[in-house]
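Lecture notes, part 5. Sequence design as translation. It can be helpful to think of inverse folding as translation between two languages: the language of shapes and the language of residues. The source text, in structure tokens, appears below.
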């Protein structure tokens, strides 16, 4: 049984918000969840094998040695009343059967994009558009650099003008939190527009 505060009033039950972190293989989903989580994140990482290298394109991410095989999980608490639960999705096609289960009850999603492998984020964008799940696109600026302007990336992805696109560095906690705030603000504005 939960303990009550000293003044005898019941504690409010926090609002739980589920957010998906999606994108292609090697884009930084695991890194983002790990950077922003207040708890030690759960990772279901496995070492890439010679068999997986046949199906996993390592172009642009040649140094990658592990891959997520189920999900990543992290948590962020805001004040006493809001808890974000982050679920990083696996990036390879062979694990897509997990996405429908992970997406159940999600408030929205962040689609990470890597301009070295931009086409890898198209399946994630298509998935959330089909499900009518609110999402934003966050361009991971590897090594703190990005050779392309946001408008060029937006045009290359043929994004709807209403889908926010932000630049970020998934290794940086503050940058990662700004991505999550952008998603929540986007979802809020969509809901207000329906009123």
């Amino acid at each position: 049984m939960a303990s009550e505060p000293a003044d005898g009033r019941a504690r409010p039950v926090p609002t739980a918000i589920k957010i998906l972190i999606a994108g292609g293989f090697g884009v930084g989903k695991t890194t983002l969840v790990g950077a922003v989580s207040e708890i030690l994140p759960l990772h279901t990482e496995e070492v890439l094998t010679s068999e997986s290298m046949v199906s996993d394109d390592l172009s642009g991410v040649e140094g990658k040695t592990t891959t997520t095989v189920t999900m990543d999980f992290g948590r962020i608490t805001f004040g006493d009343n809001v808890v974000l639960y982050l679920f990083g999705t696996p990036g390879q096609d062979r694990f897509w059967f997990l996405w429908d289960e992970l997406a159940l009850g999600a408030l929205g999603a962040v689609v990470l994009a890597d301009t070295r492998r931009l086409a890898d984020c198209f399946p994630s964008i298509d998935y959330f558009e089909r499900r009518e799940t609110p999402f934003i696109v966050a361009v991971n600026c590897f090594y703190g650099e990005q050779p392309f302007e946001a408008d060029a990336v937006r045009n290359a992805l043929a994004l709807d003008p209403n889908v926010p696109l932000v630049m970020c560095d998934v290794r940086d906690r503050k940058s990662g939190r700004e991505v999550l705030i952008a998603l929540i603000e986007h979802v809020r504005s969509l809901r207000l527009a329906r009123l």
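The translated text above is only one of many valid answers, since several sequences can fold into similar shapes. The longest strand covers residues 66-78.
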